[in-house]
Amino acid sequence: MNGREQISSPKRTKEIIQRYKFSFKKSLGQNFLIDQNILDKIVDAAELDSSAGALEIGPGIGALTERLAQTAGAVTAVEIDRRLIPILRDVLSPYPHVKVRNDDVLKVDLKELFAEDFAGVERVSVVANLPYYVTTPILMKLLEEKLPLDNIVVMIQKEVAERMAASPGGKEYGSLSIAVQYYSEPELVCKVPRTVFIPEPNVESAVIRLKVRQHPPVEVADEKHFFEVVQACFVQRRKTIANNIKARYFPQEGRERLEALLAEAGIEPTRRGETLSIEEYARLSGVLLAAGIA
Ligand code: SAM
Predict the structure, then answer these.
(1) Is 10-212 CATH 3.30.930.10?
(2) Which stretches in the chain have pLDDT values below 50?
(3) What local confidence, expressed as pLDDT, does residue 3 receive?
(4) Distance between CA atoms of 61 and 64, rounded to whole angstroms?
(5) What are phi and psi for residue 55, nearest 5 degrees?
(6) Binding site membership of 85 for ligand 1 (Cβ less than 6 Å)
(7) Does CATH number 1.10.10.10 belong to domain 223-290?
């Protein structure tokens, strides 16, 4: 350490904000972390060491970035807000292995970024206190691009974390649970109160760890079709599987062929989408696809 207080200490955070006359932009989800315990939990969950790289999305004034710099061998932080770049360059100057990029993470070519910034690195984690207005698009981009990632540890809105980690049968379980669990194994690390941020957000938060899968948990012939079937089955949560599938794929037909296909997939037509496991969705998509229904 450089003999100064951590950036994330409430005192230093306030000092930095005042020195640079920084004003928070609610529209960019700017809530900065000031709790040392929570930062420890986030960094510990990523299991970093000097052979690992860390990609941070939305570093703010560098609270988490500094912790990552003290643990990982290479750190890249992507921040959309141009006003934060000179602040980050200044406060992170003691850490030459940190690279700050001024970009919208949703527009960045992540494969290129990985090739440039993490070339000699054994494994990479994404670690972030995410802007809540774009949590799902960011996580789905990270997962769908099949990047060489070991794990993703992120602070997100508590309800979204619960939906991502939900099992079949409950009201939190939905297409987001299935999408996230297809690519990763989610685990809730801890719940986080509003009081650990400046300014306090309107919602409760949680830290979630997604261990990225090397192979999907089920065999799927056509991923796009699989996810379309899943989406279709949750269009109206209160409707049965048969009714949702009929509305999407057989709007003009009677129920005979639909019921035969559901029977072939081993799925009772009266069940609801929220009761089907990922294996059952894979089977259903496979049967529909084999029958030419896409
Ligand atoms: N990591 C800091 C912390 O924990 O104190 C700040 C976290 S704050 C919740 C989210 C950060 O993401 C803000 O700095 C915001 O400007 C940035 N951000 C918002 N949208 C972004 C995007 N599309 N791409 C990159 N950064 C973004």
Answers:
(1) no
(2) 1
(3) 64
(4) 9
(5) -105, 120
(6) no
(7) no
